Amino acid sequence: MLDRIQHDGKFEQDEAYNYFIRFINTTDPAVLAARADRNVSAATLIADPRARSGDILRVRGTLLDVYHQGLSTNPANLRDSYVAYVLDREENVTVVHLLEMPPPYRVREDLFEADGIFLKLIHYETQKTTKDLGYRLVRKAPLVLARSGRIRPLLTPAETSLDSVRFLLAFSVVLVLIAGAAYAWTRRNERTARDLIAEARRQKGTVPRLSPRNAPNPDPQPTEATAPQTGRGETPAAPSPASGESTS
After folding, report:
1. From CA 17, how far away is CA 74, in angstroms rounded?
2. 56 phi, psi to nearest 5 deg
């Protein structure tokens, strides 16, 4: 994170640069906004500046510093300009040269946007780096020429808390829906399993179980009558015919 930008207060201009100043000053900001590429990062411009030189793009990031800069020449009857240092999400700095004063802003608290033309890479350093290390550490940054900038306030703590509450509520609703769907799916599978078991039993058939007392004899056979035995275990003899009766 940069502490503070160190600049020398000079801004060199040539005829080509003055041409772009006149072009930006006379072009409708709505046209620039419609044609601006919103998907170009500072890292992309630093990696291959020639491929994107002259492209119209949008700069977006945290406003680090803004300072007044007079013009060495007077193109389009302009005398004053402003230089803004913008830090993107990847912590790369883009230098934006503005032809109009930006609206009221808060350094490191406001989000800055500008639509302009990427011209070239320039160099910058920070006071903190120079003071702590004892030598100049120069870094590269894209230079974008824009007519004006816009300030977009960052989310306040109250807005952030409200967004968190909304997220938690939405997440809770999603969890309830998932749990309800899982419960319904489980109950439906249980009913399906019971129906399948019942159907299988009906198709196979079930033999009723009988108690031994009521069970029929599978192989009945005739049995001979037996005479009762005496107490000694002997079978009494059959009675003889009475005397006086004749036999034939």
Report:
1. 12
2. -90, 125
Contact at 8 Å (CB) between 54 and 42? no
First and final C-alpha spacing in the chain: 145
DSSP at 58 = E
* Closest C-alpha to 72, from 122, 5, 9, 149: 9
Mean pLDDT computed over every residue of the chain:
76
For residue 32, the tally of other CB atoms under 10 A from its CB is: 20
User: Does the structure show a pLDDT above 90 at 116?
Assistant: yes
Better-scored residue on pLDDT, 236 or 169: 169
**Which carries the bigger pLDDT value, residue 144 or residue 75?**
144
Neighbours of 99 (CB within 10 A): 19
d(CA 201, CA 188): 20
Please state the separation of Cα 31 from the chain's center in Å. Answer: 34
Q: Sign of torsion, CA 137 149 25 52?
A: positive
Q: Contact at 8 Å (CB) between 75 and 145?
A: no
The pLDDT of 104-113, averaged and rounded, is 85
Amino acid 4: pLDDT: 42
Please name the residues in contact with 118: beta carbons below 8 A apart, sequence gap of 6 or more. 40, 45, 49, 52, 53, 54, 55, 57, 142, 143, 144
The HSE-up count of residue 188 (CA atoms within 13 Å, CB side) is 6
pLDDT tens-digit profile of 27-53? Answer: 999 999 999 999 999 999 999 999 999
> How is residue 77 written in tokens?
């009857």
Average pLDDT in the 186-206 region?
71
Question: Strand pairing of 56-70 and 139-153?
Answer: unpaired
Q: Is the dihedral of CA 22, 24, 27, 29 positive or negative?
A: negative
DSSP assignment letter at 223: -
